Structure formats: structure tokens, C-alpha cells
Amino acid sequence: MKIAYVLNTYPSPSHSFIRREIRALEAQGHEVLRLAMRADSAPLKDAGDREEATRTRHLLREGAGPLLKAMLAEARGVAAALPRAWAAGKAGSGAGVPGTGGRLRHLIYLAEAARVAQIAKAEGASHLHAHFGTNAAMVAHLAHQISGLPYSFTLHGPEEFDAPLPLSLPAKIASAKFVAAISDFGRSQLMRWSAPEDWQRLEVVHCGIEPLKFASPLPLPEGRGRMVSIGRLSGQKGQLLLIEALALAAPRSADLHLTLVGDGALRVPIEAAIARHGLQDRVTLTGWLDEAGVRAELARAHALVLPSFAEGLPMVVMEAMAAARPVLATYIAGLPELVLPGATGWLIPAGDAAGLSAAMLELAQTPAAQLEAMGLRGRERVLQRHDIAREAAKLAAAFAR
Fold first, then answer.
1. Domain around 360
2. Which residues pair with 2 in a beta bridge?
3. Tens digit of pLDDT for each residue in 18-36?
4. 138 and 255, same structural domain?
5. Residue 229 · residue 260 · CB < 8 Å
6. Which of 358, 334, 359, 357 lies closest to 345, judged by CA?
7. Is the pTM higher than 0.85?
């Protein structure tokens, strides 16, 4: 099969799971046409992302001319799709949610969709697939209306869970050939916004890891209580609460140390919180790292900590478990499907600084042999559930149907 992937910003440091999925499909003999609206504005540190950028067609980089020409060339389909774009723009007006916007934004999506339809037909693609139920899914939805090409999308969360109606999620589900969720929890949210007769078209396809990159478990480092948190520095990830929890725990344990890997809008407030609590010697901020750098930080840590308020099912949890690291995470979304309290890590109520602090202290007091056993159980679980070759095969089977 030849599948056209419709993406918003790609490649991106936080979207390496899309790259792995595409590469796995290609390894199984399928062709994938990469159609992204834009490139990431930040420099790409990972060599895999840089290579992927050379294989991706960025539509907005082409300028307005090709978009307008595509709209003229696909005029009949554009006219048929215009009412849907207009209605979606009205639903999203003033919503303040990424991927919704107003009518002008959705007219731009319509132009992008015309270009996607034009390229996909010219290249012989038989199906369109988008990641995330936001911008990209809207462009694929409209491209389907314009061209008749079938489409599907993968829902991740939490953005789609927060604003299903402004994002026109019911309409996108209804017109898609199938919708993949990355967790059972995600599928349940799709069920909320779809007709019962459509539930059979809702799949669970996990994001995956490459087992060969985790061929053996990482040995635990010396000492105790070293934690790493990996992800965009943003409100939904809960890093400010993490600093508060560390401030509560630090006086009771000299061993605790936290490394924050990633960057984002909350870096300055996080640095201020670290200084306010006098934790400069207890917290290290690395910025974004490539895959080798992330793996090195996991090797230096005794556990991954993820204090998120909202999630889908994060890749960093899968990668940490594959490296044989226990996980401290919040009891939200798809996380309980992977992290088993007492067996592979700790689950804490979201927003509970005291509970998170207590789990940190318990981590610091847990014998190395017990941590190692937890890590190995987590490794076995994630390798069984999140092998990218197996998950890509599930996705390819859905494409074929």
C-alpha cells in the first residue's frame, strides 16, 4: 500500500514515535508519503529527525501559490467541502484550543487539504492517515471530502479530550474509515463522541518502541534516589508541582536529585521555583536531548518521574520501562494500563504534591535489588505491549481493511 501521512509540524523532537511508526511500515514493504504543513522552528538535534526532514514535504514552505492553484484545480471538491470547513470554523471560533480556531483558519485548512488531495492523487496514495485529532485530522477530513480518498487518524490526547466539540471530533470520527487510539482509555473517549454503531471502527494501536534499541536492561547506577523527568516544560506536564514535591522531600533525604530533560514555555517559572526553594544543587535542567542523550540520562537515574495533569500515554514511560527503570507517574489517562503500582512503579493522584513527595522518599529508601526487580517486570510488560513492528502491522491491517 501507499499511505499519505498528513501531519502538522513534522519531524519534531516530541514526535519521534511517528517516525518510528512510519519506518516500521516501510520495513514491512509499504510506501509512506510524508505531507507536513510546516517544519519545526527549533533545530533538530536527533540525526533520525534530520534525515526524516529531508524525506518530508512541507506544504507551507511552498508558499501560497501552490495552495491557491490546488484549490482551483480541485474546485468541485473544494466547493463540496466548503460547508464543512465553514461549520467547523464556526464551532471552533473563540475556543482558544490549538487546532480549532475560527473560520479563517479553517479556510486555510481547506487550502491545505486541496494541496494534500492533489499531491496524494498524483503520487498514487490510496489512503490518508493523520496523527492527532486536531489540525492534521481536520486537513485529512477535508482532503477526504475533496478527493474521495479514504482517511483515518490516530487520537493521542489530551487536547482532543479537552475540546471534542470545538475540534469537530464527532464529525471526524463519523467520516473516517477507522480511528486508532493509543490506549484503551483513549478508545473509551472516542466511544463517548461516536455513535454505538461506529464503535467497531475504533481501534487500539499503541505507540511503539524499537526493541533492538533496548536489547538489554540498563544496570542501576550507584547511590539512590536519582530521578529523571522527560518532556516538554508545560502546564499539563506538571513540572512545577514536581519542584514543590521535591522541596517537601529534600529535607528528609540527602539522596534525592532530579534531572529535567526538555524545554518549553515554563522553563523560566521552573527555574524561579528551583531558586525559591533553594534546590539548585538538587535539580539539573538539560534542555532537549537526542535519543542517545535521553538514554544516557535514564542510565544515570533510578526511576522516571512523570507528574502530569493530562496525558495520552507518553513514549517516555515506554522507553524508561524498556530500559528497566521503575516509573513514578500520576493516575490518569492510559498510564495505569502500563504502570502497575508496587510491581513496575508508583501511581499518585494528579496534583498531589504530598503524595508525590512520599513516593520520592519511598523510591530513595527502596533497596536496589527491589528496584531492579520492578524495572525488569516493567521491561517485560512494555516489550510485550509496545513492540513497534507489531503495532505497525496492526495499523497496516486496518489500512488494508
1. 213-385
2. 31
3. 999 999 999 999 999 999 9
4. no
5. yes
6. 359
7. yes
